[in-house]
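agent> fetching stored inputs for the magnesium ion docking request
agent> found them:
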Amino acid sequence: MASHAIDTILKEQRLFEPSDEFRSKAHIQSRAEYERLYKEAEENPEGFWANIARELHWFKPWERVLEWNLPFAQWFIGGQLNLSYNCLDRHVAGARKNKAALIWEGEPGDSRVLTYQQLLYEVSKCANVLKSLGVKKGDRVAIYMGMVPELPIAMLACARIGAPHTVVFGGFSAQSLIDRINDCGASAVITQDAGYRRGAEVKLKEAVDQALPQCATVQNVLVYRRTGCEVKMEPGRDHWWHQLMETASADCPAEPVDAEHPLYLLYTSGTTGKPKGILHTTGGYSVGTYITMKWIFDLREEDTFWCTADIGWVTGHSYVVYGPLQNGATSLMYEGAPTWPEADRFWKTVEKYQVNIFYTAPTAIRAFMRLGEQWPRKHEMKSLRLLGTVGEPINPEAWIWYREVIGRGRCPIVDTWWQTETGAAMITPLPGAIATKPGSATKPFPGIIVDVVDREGQSVPKGAGGFLVIKKPWPAMLRTIYGDPERYKQQYWSQIPGMYFAGDGARIDEDGYIWLMGRVDDVLNVAGHRLSTMEIESALVANPAVAEAAVVGRPDEIKGQAVSAFVTLKAGQTAGEELKQQLRQWVAQEIGPIAKPDDIRFTDALPKTRSGKIMRRLLREIATSGTVKGDTTTLDDFSVLTKLSGDEE
Ligand code: ATP
Ligand code: MG
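agent> prediction call returned; pasting tokens
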């Protein structure tokens, strides 16, 4: 990293105020109210977070709010709670007893609804099943499932008895499962026969069978039957979910655990390299996910909330399961592929359940842009009132498309910046309070102290690009990398001494709005200018022919680095020399000649992680040497690489 951070070239001027109608019903209704909260939290962070924590149920109150030994934090010391209790028992005792907690849509079109009472019943039974298999407080449980209600049931059951879970994304291979199980020494695995994806079966139990000979710590496997496909059951080790649930007692009081008791560990999505096992603990994570859910998504009692993320990622943990359920909300879960059996499955689902709040990823938005407006236009989607995105910087044109075509110009958009490590959203508009600018995640959440700095930790001037840091501990922060506190220190707290830095570049504009600029490892150095990939990509995506773009640098004798762009086109566009020249000119005009791509390759798909993020480091290798030698374990579709490396300029 050079200490002169990142040059900015993107100029986005559009501003969208929330409507008076939206504002008047919002939890936080004005910029002034936000500023007041922010100031209050900044001046007295412990008081601010303690007030929020008091909205949850504690078996025993905490004695101290925070103990901070940089970089190790403890929150709500001495307090005892149980997250499963806060998600279930608390609501069942009141008017939400028969409210839908989970609405589930299976890929084949089957559907289930679980009320809070029903969910508590299932979770309590499952917790007793786990106990009967010898799972004790503190034991790690690996969960390798598709998007079925039994996945949150399993997570809540673990939380109920104080057994930290590690959810492994159901699309990962046996090898990824082995690595994760062995890293945390899980004693049990919860899985299912298979899941549905694009009309086919994903054989999960088979992958577990392949993995387990190399996982010495696993003693029991609990298998939920979803598709009914044939599976091998190893006597003594494997148990059918439905058989054990049948006889299990539904009486399982939630075990009070210390606030710092480990809740789960989860591996990052692996965009930059080998995934890291991030540890979250109970109290702080509960408080962070509870309040961000309430304020950012501006939850109302009657809302149907749909976060499309797979629960295998942190977004699913925080905003499919724990955030919504702590708030007594109705959370929608969908099992399968977004475009199955047709490209309007999401919009059909929005209509079917009258979804009010919809939260998805830029990669999905760009994919829908590519498929064309006709699919969402088939559905009215009048129920939608708020949209959200997370996972990557959203290009302003994709943001505008989301607003116009999905939100029909009516719904505010919350672009939420956060990470597996942060546990909960950190930089985001509060939709009734903050006017939005397309492509900006806007403002830090109250209590979150962020800055954009240079290598030495000095704030950079307004408008200049630099390293995004967090300067004070926050409740939902990771506590360590599992089993490796030294790496935790090195990775997050040493690159910029005394501050949390996890790899992203950003700038703050004259209104104090934060613009994420992508990963600093991806920054290009062209003739002495440090350019963010995100800005050049956004210029490309603003061209009507382009659906998605990834930009990387490759070595160039004269300029230091040349700009190499990989572009996918919208339906109906033709790739060719002419369009290449047009796009180069376009970028030169939009943001300046310095950013003009030296070469452009058209491709049907970009290499992405399983969570849908573009893997620029692989493209960098392709642009530089034509082949890929780096770690590809988290890559979604290997054939993309084969095609790209075969395709000579
Ligand atoms: P790894 O750390 O293993 O490389 P990862 O960083 O992709 O994987 P996650 O924790 O899932 O794993 O992703 C967090 C990252 O996603 C952020 O650091 C940022 O780069 C990106 N990101 C998430 N939300 C946004 C957003 N709203 N705007 C810009 N970038 C975002
Ligand atoms: Mg990361």
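agent> quick read of the result: The first strand starts at residue 64 and ends at 69.
agent> awaiting further instructions
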